[in-house]
Structures are given as C-alpha cells and as structure tokens.
Amino acid sequence: xxxxxxxxxxxxxxxxxxxxxxxxxxxxxxxxxxxxxxxxxxxxxxxxxxxxxxxxxxxxxxxxxxxxxxxxxxxxxxxxxxxxxxxxxxxxxxxxxxxxxxxxxxxxxxxxxxxxxxxxxxxxxxxxxxxxxxxxxxxxxxxxxxxxxxxxxxxxxxxxxxxxxxxxxxxxxxxxxxxxxxxxxxxxxxxxxxxxxxxxxxxxxxxxxxxxxxxx
Length: 216
Hints:
The chain has helices at about 1-10, 15-35, 45-65, 65-85, 90-100, 100-110, 120-130, 140-145, 150-160, 170-185, 190-210. The chain is mostly helical. It has a domain at about 1-85.
C-alpha cells in the first residue's frame, strides 16, 4: 500500500494531463480519418462543403499539428524516466514491456492494416533503449545527423555514381492497394492475413517515407 502511494506521489501531474490531452486528440483524429474527411472528398452541398472544410482545418491545426508532436515528446520523456529509474541502464523489464505490445499490434493490424502504430513503437522503443547507454554528448551529433536527411544524401550519391537503386521509395502504396482489393473481394481469413502481413509492411514503409500517413 505504501509503495502504491509513493508511486502516485512521485507522478508528474502535468505530464499525465498532457498525455491525456494528446491521446484524446489522436483518438478524435482517428475518428475523422475513418470517416474519410481527409482525401479531398467533400460534399456537393454548399453548407456541408463549408462544414467539411472547417473540420479539415480544425483537424490539422488542433489535432494533427499539436497532439502528435506532444505525444512523441512524451514518448521520449517516458523513456528518459525509465533510464533514470534504472540508473542509465536498459533494463530487461523495459524490453519485456515493449515486446508485450507485439500481440496487441498484431490484433490492431488485423482490423486497421494501415493504421497500426504499436508495432512502430516497439521498434523505436528498442532503438531508444539502446541509445540510453550512449554518453549525453553524443545526442547533439545524432540530432544533427538525422536532421540532415542522410537517406537523401545517400540517394544523391547513388545517383551521381550512376546507380539505379532507390532508397527513398518503398512502394508502400502498392501494399496498401493490395490490402484494399482484398477487403473488397476476399473472405475474412484472407482479409485478416493480408492486413497482418502486407498491411503492416505497407504501414511501416509508409511511415518510414512520410512519417505520418502510409497512404499517398
């Protein structure tokens, strides 16, 4: 009982509030996405057209543009707290927690093939836990390295060398289109398997390329 009270007392209230706000915004954003207000599909009615545009504008400025960066920041901050609690060492407990997300990621992917984010959290979380062991002086160098768009420079070098390898395009839209076709014409087992396999591959490739959406 004392341990539980101590944990509650040590929680940072502001972080919990921000996390709740971010999750609520992402929750609402997913509702908008599933009702397909994105994709420039507007009503022909003048009044409804203005409502659609208002929702689209509010979606970007108050949900997509705010809640995702907040949640990403809190994700890194949570990893920092984990590192502090383990004295700077990546604990097996943290890895087990991340691996425990995999079954939920697979279940989510069955129903939302291009919308699963838990699998990506597992991959990014593993990388972050590996970076915990690095000295803090390495962090600015890593930030500069990733902000310099290394894949773009690699593609430029390949192009100047006369190569035909494209490291920037993974044809994620092809995977998503195959998922859509299976949903239209396949049975339940086929849809579930395609969502879990090609849907996840297309989702990962899309997030690697665009960062936010797996659809073009």
